[in-house]
Amino acid sequence: MKILVLGAGGRLGAALVRSYGCAGLNRVQFDLSAPEAELKRVLDNQDFDVLINCAALTNVDYCETNAGESHHINAVMPGLIAKWCAERGARMVHIGTDYVFAGDGSTLLTEDAEAEPLSIYGKSKLAGDLAVIGISPNHMSVRISWVFGPDRPSFVDMILQRALKQDSVEAIGDKWASPTYTLDFASDLFPLLRDANAGGILHLCNTGATTWQEYGEYAIKAAAELGWPLKTTTVGGVPLKSMSNFIAARPVFSAMSVSRYETLAGRTTRPWQAAVRDYVLSQPVPGV
C-alpha cells in the first residue's frame, strides 16, 4: 500500500508520515489555494493508492471573517482531490472535525448525529465531508477533535508551559470534547486504510469526554508526578462565554463516540487520560 499525506507539515500529517514511513507534501509543496491545474499536476506525479488529506484552513476565527477562502480550501478542494483520486483508482481519507456539530446535547455523538455547524469553519468542513464521500463509497472522512502530539505544540504543551511559569492557570471549564493523540490516531487508522467497508463518515479519537480545564489539569498533574518544577498543579475553570476574543461560535458539547470504529476495527481507542500521560512522559523534564 502506497500512502501519500497532504498537510505533512502539520501536527497530524507529520505524525502520519513518520508512523507510516510514507510520502508527504507540506503546504509549500501542495498549497490548497494554488491553481487547480497546478495541484492536479503535482498529484499526477505522485505514486499512491491511498491519499490522506490533513490539509485545511483550521483557524476558526479567521474562517468566520473569510468565508470564501474557507469554503474553497475546506470544501471545494477536498471534493476535487476526491474526484482526482477516484479517477486514478485511489482511495481518499479526508480529515474532518467535531465542529460540524451544534454541541447542544450531552451524549457522545455518533456518525448518524445531525450535523448543524455553528461557524463558517464548521460549515465549510461539513461541506468537505459530504463532497469527499459523495464522490466514492470507498472514500472516508474521519472526524477528529482536540489534537495533540509531538510534532507541533498544542493545548497540552501550552498549559504545561504556563504551569511552569505562573502560580495561577485557567482554562475553559464548560466545553466538552474528546482529545485525539496523533500517535494513537496513526496506529488506529492504519488497519482501516485497506478496509472497503470503512467508507463514509468515521469518528476517531481517544475515548471519553473532558473539558479544557480537566484536560489541562490532568496533564499538569501527570507532569508533577514526573518531577516537573511546576508552580501550580491545578487549573481554574472559566466559562466559554467569557472568551471575548472568540469571533466564531464554538460547540459546547462535541465529544464523539467511536462505536463505529470499534465495529469496523474490532478494537477501541485508548482513554484520553492514558494518551495524555504517555505524551507527557515522552517529554524531557525541564531543568534536567
Description:
It is a single chain. This protein is 39% helix and 14% strand. The longest helix is centred in the N-terminal third of the chain and has 21 residues, at 67-87. It has a six-stranded parallel sheet with strand order 2-1-3-4-5-10, with helices on both faces. Strands 6-9 form a two-stranded parallel ribbon. Strands 7-12 form a two-stranded parallel ribbon. The model has no long low-confidence stretch (mean pLDDT 96). With 288 residues, the chain is an alpha/beta fold. The protein is built from ten helices and twelve strands. Helix 5 links the parallel strand 4 and strand 5 (140-144).
In short:
With 288 residues, the chain is an alpha/beta fold. 39% of the residues lie in helices and 14% in strands.
Question: Top keywords for this entry?
Answer:
288 residues, alpha/beta, six-stranded parallel sheet, 10 helices, 39% helix
